[in-house]
Design brief:
By secondary structure, this protein is mainly alpha-helical. It has helices at residues 4-22, 27-54, 86-99, 101-104, 123-142, 152-163, 175-184, 190-201, 215-230, 238-241, 272-285; strands spanning 107-112, 115-120. Helix 1 crosses helix 9 (215-230), helix 2 packs parallel to helix 9 and helix 7 runs antiparallel to helix 9. The N and C termini lie far apart (74 Å).
């Protein structure tokens, strides 16, 4: 049931875009207004979330570590899993963001013959890596729609992606499905698409080209716009949040530097000596030992 509701919502969005273009001829709404509104929502939402996270106080170093901390000279430090310098943090973040290093260490736990047994479990890591890298390649490939002269790097990635695309479309149900339909089944006016996207990015879209592009393109663009607008309010924001996580982006140098809370304010304290002076007689009557008679 939890998967059925999003599926029905996606179908409703597809039908909404299809009816808006095919029946109501709302090409300008779905081709210009909605993409701009989605992009504005995305930028404002992401900036707000990042600034909100960045303003959270983190007075102490609280990195999660999996290796030996820097200690005595003859004890070998794990400089990636337990970094004590900025360079180590950069390396750790690079491995985490690009290769999902922490997920690579994922373990499975089973109960066999009354004993808890731990074993390696790499399928989740492989699936996660393939899923995220596929999205990255798709994003890079779409840059060709917004660039006049496509760089050689993008062409190389496109060729590599075409070679490795067997099975990749299985990962996508909505946006990728419409993209695959445009590429292999329902051809669209690709030159018109390029003119429209170049006009959008230069804030000068050509209204004349809107009616020449196929309906399936507007369905695809509408789904992307909805995803873009939804992005800042969803768990997809972990893309930016991973860089602001204090358990990841801080060096573990607690043994080398003393970190004090800059937000500490003077607090009036009542020392034990003062406490004993105030209640010494009562403490003696109750049989409580005192330091001074």
């Amino acid at each position: 049931m939890r998967a059925l509701t999003p599926f029905v919502m996606v179908i409703a969005l597809v039908l909404l875009a299809f009816a808006g273009i095919k029946t109501a001829n709302l090409h300008f709404l779905f081709g210009v207004v909605i993409p701009y509104a989605a992009l504005g929502t995305f930028i404002i939402g992401v900036v707000y979330r990042v600034l909100n996270w960045g303003s959270s106080p983190v007075p102490f170093r609280i990195p999660t570590t999996c290796g030996q901390e820097k200690s005595l000279p003859w004890i070998k430090q794990n400089k990636i899993d337990n970094p004590s310098s900025s360079l180590g943090v950069i390396m750790r973040m690079a491995f985490e963001v690009l290769l999902f290093r922490s997920l690579f260490r994922n373990m499975k736990t089973e109960l066999k013959s009354g004993k808890v047994v731990y074993g390696s479990e790499k399928w989740l890591w492989v699936a996660g890596l393939a899923f995220h890298w596929s999205f990255l390649i798709i994003l890079i490939r779409h840059f060709r729609c917004f660039i006049e002269n496509v760089p050689f790097v993008f062409k190389t990635i496109e060729g590599l992606d075409s070679f490795l695309q067997i099975g990749v479309p299985l990962f996508y149900i909505t946006e990728a499905t419409s993209g695959v339909l445009m590429r292999y089944f329902y051809k669209v006016h690709i030159v018109g698409v390029k003119i429209l996207t170049m006009g959008l990015i230069s804030f000068n879209p050509d209204p004349k080209i809107l009616n020449e592009i196929g309906t399936i393109f507007y369905v695809h663009l509408f789904l992307i716009s909805v995803l873009l607008a939804y992005f800042p309010f969803s768990k997809l924001m972990h893309m930016g949040g991973v860089f602001l996580s204090p358990t990841r982006n801080l060096a573990n140098n607690n043994r080398m530097e003393r970190h004090t809370n800059p937000w500490d304010y003077p607090v009036e304290v009542h020392t034990y000596e003062e406490y004993e002076n105030d209640f010494r007689d009562k403490m003696k009557k109750a049989g409580i030992p005192v330091e001074k008679e």
